[in-house]
Amino acid sequence: MLAIAASARSKVSFAAAAHSEPVTRSKKTGYVINRQKLEISAVPKRRNTPSIPTAMSYARVQPANPFPLACPRVAKARHLRAMAVPFTAAAPPGPLKARLASGEHLYGAFLCSFSPTLAEILGWAGYDYVVIDMEHGPGDTFAALPCMQALASAGVPAILRIAANDPVLMKKAMDLGPQGVVVPMIETPSDAEKAIASCQYPPRGNRGAAHPIVHASMYGIDTSYLQMNEEVLRILQIESAEAVDHILDIAAVDGVDCLMLGPTDLSSSIGYLHDPGHENVMKLMHRAEKAVLSAPVTTYLGGFAMPHDPPEEMRKRGYHLISGAVDLALFRNAAVADVKANKVSTASQRILLGGVLDHFTQLLFISYLQHKES
């Protein structure tokens, strides 16, 4: 409870509920209440009156700022908030598919740790999207859901990469309600047709329907969910030389929105597993890029930024959707750099310890000589 001095000249003002009554004096508390100006002022209290406001007074009068800026702890907290990423109450951006159609170029990250905390950090960092990787990450749809909820709190859309081109895996992923899905290892047009069919309801596809009880429809609360089926961004991955040979036919499959090139798998498919930046790999990449961009149907070009192929170079070549950072790589690089910069090596510890022991030995020897001379 707030303590209010009873000095005749002290004055404390608080915010109160709006009333139009005139100024009155409380018979119980000895305070002057100006309901029109929303103030309560301390005046000399009458004899035998309480020294603090009653519960009824608090029901009507609330403190405008019980923690003034003068409080060091509050001032520090406000300073830290001011240093943080600024929060805006603006409406979240539109669906990824609509943003690409409007000409926007998107930059996102991959989440492989399945950590909701790291997902939330990536979301608040400002990425356009985050891909939750169920192909190479350890998690499944059960682990992906909390990560999607964390991203939703930051207003950032989630894309799910399923482990394989499998209708069951696709059904479970789509039931979570991502804004996009990524299907790996598409080699032929028939692979593409299988992937597209598994993420669409009949008659256009063969996706199983349980929309009244899945997260994608807010468990049946969102009755417009079935009309939003076409907003999902369908991304197929081109990851082998064979796939590049069929890339125009794959792009022509109805329902394909984006083809994403996988540089590491492309490099391994032609014998350069440890050298994705090799000249022959880049030639294959450029051939695939030109094919997608020149396709008769509109197909977006997606890819992964690499040390030898940064995002700015990819944008120059026409990429619409670029995935850059990976959460585990970001954490690994930061941890390794921190240890390298700040940890004292074993050899250095030995040198320091040896120096201390040498100095201690010298002191003992000097003490021995002094004792002997005396």
* Topology, number of strands: 13
Alpha-carbon distance between the two ends: 74 Å
Total tally of structural domains: 3
Low-confidence blocks of residues: 1-23, 28-46, 49-70
Helix content: 25-40%
SS-based structural class?
alpha/beta
Overall residue-averaged pLDDT value: 82
Which architecture of the largest domain per CATH? Alpha-Beta Barrel
Overall form: elongated
CATH superfamily of the largest domain, please? Phosphoenolpyruvate-binding domains
Radius of gyration equals: 33 Å
Instruction: Kindly report the CATH topology of the largest domain.
Output: TIM Barrel
Q: In order across it, which strands form the biggest sheet?
A: 6-7-8-9-10-11-12-13
- In terms of DSSP E residues, the strand content is 5-15%
Helix-strand sequence? EEEEHEHHEHEHEHEHEHHEHHEHEHH
CATH class of the largest domain: Alpha Beta
**Major beta-sheet overview:** 8 strands, parallel, barrel
Specify the number of helices: 14
General description of the model:
- It comes from Adiantum capillus-veneris.
- One of its GO terms (molecular function) is metal ion binding.
- This is HpcH/HpaI aldolase/citrate lyase domain-containing protein.
- Keywords: Lyase, Metal-binding.
- The protein has 14 helices and 13 strands.
- It is an alpha/beta fold and 374 residues long.
- It has 3 domains: 67 residues, no CATH class; 236 residues, TIM Barrel (Alpha-Beta Barrel), CATH 3.20.20.60; 30 residues.
- It has an 8-stranded parallel β-barrel, surrounded by 6 helices.
- It is elongated and about 105 Å long.
- The N and C termini lie far apart (74 Å).
- The N terminus is likely disordered.
